[in-house]
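Ligand-bound model needed. manganese (II) ion.
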Amino acid sequence: MRFIHMADVHLGAAPDGRTEWSGTRKKEIWETFRSSIEDARREQVDLLLIAGDLFHRQPLLEELREVNYLFSTLPNTRVVLIAGNHDYLQPASNYLNFSWSRNVVCLFSRECECVRFSDIETEVYGLSYYRQEIPEPLYEGIHPVQTREKCCRILLAHGGDSQHIPISREALQKSGFDYIALGHIHKPQVLIKDRAAYAGALEPIDCNDPGPHGYILGEYARGRLQIRFVRKAKREYVFLPLEVTDADTTFSLRDKLEKKIEERGWQHIYRVILQGKREPQIHFDKEKLMEFGMVLEVEDQTMPAFHLEELKRKYAGQMIGRYIESFEGHERSQIEEKALQYGLEALLTRE
Ligand SMILES: [Mn+2]
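Prediction:
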């Protein structure tokens, strides 16, 4: 039995709202989902598991039709999905009255239910969200029904923080499932080797989702389950520290940044942090550094590089000179270093 486990697709989301590429990202989320369905068809997987938050918010009817069409292109694959905290089942949710393609099963119950596929000897257990927050650890105490027949038992689960069904690794370990297909945490991660994993968001949804994204491809054979992560996302959010020296100007930083982006890839979305010491008189033009590539933000954490001996000589006997001297005679702590820098900046601007 072969399966794809995906989660947190967040169809309908438009990441990086204020940027010019936000609309593109919205389309890319749909496109990556479509292309993953194509993978499922090509790989001829028996099962497609969607562990919640397929939609970013309440799905529109036309969006459900698109999704259902894609599912219908996989007649030999069972699709099982649950609703997460983003696409939770409101009383008026379009999820509830929708008529799905024959191969689709929605586990839309508040309590854990189970669907059994005899031909592929697999059972899938799961429940859905009816409210945005569920602080109770609902998955603790859920176990597969023991039958004599050999069969792969999977739990489809969404949550893992204090407000969204807290999940403990120990409880999963003892649960008795062959595999726990998790959703909600956007960073792909394995909780128990070949037994419990977060597929992570299919495409990163906001700048707090760095690193690669995609889905999990799994196989269950002769009582043994194995999974591997498949990279699928078109882009990554990259945190990029840029080292600054007192020789740097805005244009030199622009060139340094361009080189770094060239190395790492133009497709990615960058958060740039300027670090190090700058010439005290210089102020970098952050907008200039955001003109090319996909730079989401530039944070300037640089400190002015003061030439202390020179300043001491120039302002000997005055406030600035005495201020510098008050930090001398011992190794400066990090806080003292900052106090010296900030203080000098303030005093020198007053000059
Ligand atoms: Mn979620």
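The chain has a mean pLDDT of 95.
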